[in-house]
Amino acid sequence: xxxxxxxxxxCLARTTFDYMAARDIYDRIKGELEQIENVEYTFVxxxxxxxDEAKKAASQLVAKNVDAVVVISGTFHLGHLVLEIDKxxxxxxLLWGLNELPYNGGKxxxxxxxxxxxxxxxxxxxxxxxxxxxxxxKIDEDWIDAIRIRAAFQEAHLGxxxxxxxxxxxxxxxxxxxxxxxxxLIDHFELHEVFDVELTEEEVQEKxxxxxxxxxxxxxxxxxxxxxxxLSAKFKKFMNxxxxxxxxxRCWPEFARDFGISPCxxxxxxxxxxxxxxxxxxxxxTMSMIAHKAVGGETPFLADLxxxxxxxxxxxxxxxxVAPCNLWDGKCTRALDTYFAGGKGVTADFVMKDGDFTxxxxxxxxxxxxxxxxxxxAVPMDxxxxxxxxxxxxxxxxxxxxxxxxxxxxxxxxxMVYGDFTRPFEILAKINGWELIQ
Length: 438
Prior knowledge:
Blueprint: E1 5-12, H1 19-33, E2 39-43, H2 51-63, E3 68-73, H3 80-89, E4 93-97, H4 112-125, E5 131-135, H5 141-155, E6 158-161, H6 175-182, E7 186-189, H7 191-195, H8 201-214, H9 222-242, E8 246-249, H10 254-259, H11 264-272, E9 277-278, H12 283-294, E10 301-309, E11 314-319, E12 335-337, E13 347-351, E14 355-365, E15 368-379, E16 388-394, H13 398-408, E17 414-418, H14 422-432, E18 435-437
Parallel strand pairs: 1-2, 1-3, 3-4, 4-5, 6-7, 6-8, 8-9, 13-16, 15-18
Antiparallel strand pairs: 10-11, 10-17, 11-16, 12-13, 14-15, 14-17, 15-16
């Protein structure tokens, strides 16, 4: 399910145009908007024509704590109206222009697009860049999805256990700048706080049963299976106890040494159940996964852009064995393996399914946030490697994708989801003033 969001709706008009037709269109729009999933609307019920009505509408919307406002230009209208709303509500605005109606006696009936032009110019020249404009009969649901991402960040409780992985300096973030840009505050926990979570035997056995139903566990020992089951239960209990939307995990080098296994397999299982867990202490990678989930991307996978083949024009989106196990291709053996960390790896081991995908990373550099995105198709491949991976062909050449990553210094993890989710992030980057890297 997509992230819930609260949106205010107001329709502006002027009596020198066909405001009665605008009212009828507004009534139709109200009914259609109610069909969109997981949106709570605050409708200003009547057309807003005068300045005092705009002030009243602004007070109504701010009292409902809306995440964004849709301003419909039912007809052309006073330029004051959107500014009166903006100065009180101070949230992103969708400027919605209606298609012109058939002429009636040689007179323009709505002149709605000119109203959008007026509003956009007033907002822009007043310093507001948090607006997006559309013309047509239907709302832009990609804009709503962009607002869902912002709402998910505002509600997010993000944690990190340990620190970033050893030497991964590029995963460091400025926490207060992240708060300024997204509203996310980050809580730090030590590794032992997860290790020390107390469990009942029933909780461990439940997770062991889930693991054996999903994976071939013949390649690991009973003790390792017990540890994976216990760690799965500990992560789940820890995240629920602290109300965490996502958790970045310093998964090496201490984990295998101090707990006895790496966390990869446990993370694979829990991510398939909707928990957001990021590898190697990567907070922005974890934020990227939260953002993908907000717009309906199911069980994101935090991957490396790996094993680029310039001649055959493909790459692997690979990681050591942490992909959500529900992303399995349904053909290969889905197994647990101990191929690294001196036999303490205990990772998931499978090829991921084929299909259209989007990869994205929210990334910061020198105080500025940016959004990196690419899309393409995951294609079938044989199980030739350890870990979890998808063979992918991008819409662009893999050489161009690699050059983009290298030349812009984007960090080496991306959130991968199946489906095309690029447009909401393009809109998000625009209204947040973030650089878009494609």
